[in-house]
Amino acid sequence: MTSLVNRILCRVSLSLITAAAVTTAAAQQSEIGPTTDAQVQSQNKTKIALIVSPKGSVLSEAAAPIQQGILAASREATASGACELVQYELSNPQDAGAVLKKAADDGAVLAIGPVSRDAVQTISEMPYLPLPVVAINRPSGETAPELFLSIDISAESEVEQLAKIAVENTAQKADLAANNFVILTTQDPYDERLARAMEAALVKAGAGAERRHISSDQIAYLRQEMRGKAFRGAFFAMNAQNASLLRPYLPPELPVFGTSYSNPMHQKDSMLAKTQSNDLNGMITLEIPAEENTSTLVAQYKGERENLSLEELQMFSVGVDAWTLGTKWIDWARRIEVPDGLTGRLSFDKDSGSKVKRELVKTVVGPNKTGKASEEDLVQFTESAEEAGL
C-alpha cells in the first residue's frame, strides 16, 4: 500500500485528451529487446487500465461517451507524462479476472471499467483483486472484494431517490387515507421496466402503488376513470411526449413525478420542450448537476459536449466522475468525497460497502426551464438495480 501512496497521483484539471494519448494493450507491445528512452519513460508513468468492450460491439458504441469522459478528465495527467492509459478489451464477462490480472502484471495500478453488468458481477464475486477497480455499474450482491468500488448508471437508481422525495413531499396525504400512488405507463418494454422499478421503490419507501397501462385511445377516458380515486400522487413511467399528453387529464392538484426520462427539457427541439413543459408544469423530477450548472461544472468540456446528445452528455459525465473516483481509489482511500461530481454529489465509505452514493438535484418542471431546488431538497440514496445491456 505504501508504494501506491508514493506513486504519482493523477490529479487533473478536467479537459479533453486526444485518442493518441491512449496506448494499446500489452499484446501490441514489441518483444523484449534493448531498452529505449521511450521505454524507460513509459516505465516511470503511472499506468491505468481502461477496460473496454470490443470495438464495433453494441456495448462499445453505447459506452463510447463514458470513455470520452474518462479521456477528457485525464488529459492533463496523460499529456504531462504522469499517467498512461492502456486499453484492455474484454469480450467475455467470464474473462474479467484474467484481463485484470494481465493489466496488473503489465504494471497497471488501477482499472477503470468494465461497464458490462455481467462483467461487473463476475469481478464482484472474485475472492480478491490484483489491483483497485472502479466498476461503472453495480453488481446484484452486497459483498465484493476489498479493492472493488462501483458507480451505478442505471435508471432504477434514479427511481429510488425520486420515490423517497415523493413519499416525503406527500406525507400529509397519507394521513387522509390516500396512501397509494398511481404509476402510469405504456406497453413499451423500457416503460414497463421503469414502472416495475417505481412500484418496488415506492413499496420499499413505505407507500402503496398500482400500475396502469395507458394507450392513446384510452387517454380520453382517463379523467373519468380517475374521478373519485384518491391517490397521493402519480408517477410517469414514459417519455416526455406521452407524459405531456396525459397530464391535462389528471386532477390539477395531484402531485406528479417523473425521472429525467420524462423531463421535457431533454428535448432537442426547444419549442417542443417549452410546449411539453407547459403541460407538465409542476412535475417533480431529478437532474444531474452537470446539466443544472453547465456554465460552471462543465465549461472546460464545452468543445466536446457540443456534438453529444443529452443522453450522451449524461454518460460523458459518468466517465468524468469515474476518473475522479479512480484518482482517489488508486490509494485505496476508505472514504471518498466528491462534492462537485458531474453526476451528483459523490460519497464512498468502504466500511459501509463498495457502492458509491450519489445525490441528484431535485428540480421542478416549468414552462421556461427546470428550477433548481434548494440544498435541503437533496436526498441521499444508494444506487441499485440494473441497466439493460450495461
Automatic annotation (TrEMBL):
This protein's record includes keyword Membrane: yes
InterPro entries (alphabetical): LpoA (IPR007443), Peripla_BP_I (IPR028082)
Keyword Membrane: yes
Top-rank lineage group of the source organism: Bacteria
One Gene Ontology molecular-function label: enzyme regulator activity
One Pfam family, short name: LppC
GO biological process annotation, one example: peptidoglycan biosynthetic process
Gene Ontology cellular component list: periplasmic side of cell outer membrane
Keywords of the record: Membrane
Name of this protein: Uncharacterized protein
Lineage: Bacteria, Pseudomonadati, Pseudomonadota, Betaproteobacteria, Burkholderiales
